[in-house]
Design goal:
Blueprint: H1 6-14, E1 38-43, E2 47-48, E3 53-61, E4 72-78, E5 84-91, E6 97-103, E7 112-122, E8 125-135
Parallel strand pairs: 2-8
Antiparallel strand pairs: 1-3, 3-6, 4-5, 4-7, 7-8
Length: 137
């Protein structure tokens, strides 16, 4: 029995995706990516203390999972009472990564969840991701 990836072979023969080299299947250029951006959001710790610091990491990748440099990133924090805080907009580094550290408000109630929403856009493509962390006393 021989297994083959007929879909990939067909696309390579037809040249349907010009971002890929038909021989090596590596992206030719991350400047010509196709499709929505893949946005991953992580917090440094799953638990933060009121009045303490928390760090959020955002990773922006294209459809070939290559990091997107200089993607415009916005981060919105949604607190347990429904109020929101927008962190200053920024850009990803050459690897598609952005890191921001901020002060967790001292008046947050314990055992609550803070939602972290990130949006990214670059060259007409966009994507969104989310994460969260818990507030501990």
């Amino acid at each position: 029995m021989v297994l083959s990836d007929i879909g990939k072979i067909y696309m390579d023969m037809r040249g349907i995706n010009p971002n890929y080299d038909n021989i090596n299947n590596f992206p030719r250029s991350v400047d010509t990516y196709i499709g929505p951006l893949n946005v991953l959001v992580f917090t440094k710790t799953p638990v933060a203390f009121p009045g303490g610091m928390q760090t959020v990491f955002v990773v922006v990748r294209d459809s070939a999972l290559q990091g997107i440099a200089d993607a415009n990133i916005t981060i919105n924090l949604i607190y347990p009472d429904g109020s929101e805080q927008n962190l200053p907009p920024a850009s990803s580094d050459q690897n598609g990564i952005y890191e921001v550290t901020f002060l967790v408000p001292a008046d947050l109630p314990a055992e609550q969840i803070v939602q972290v929403h990130a949006n990214a856009n670059s060259k007409g493509n966009s994507g969104a991701g989310q994460s969260w962390f818990r507030v501990r006393p």
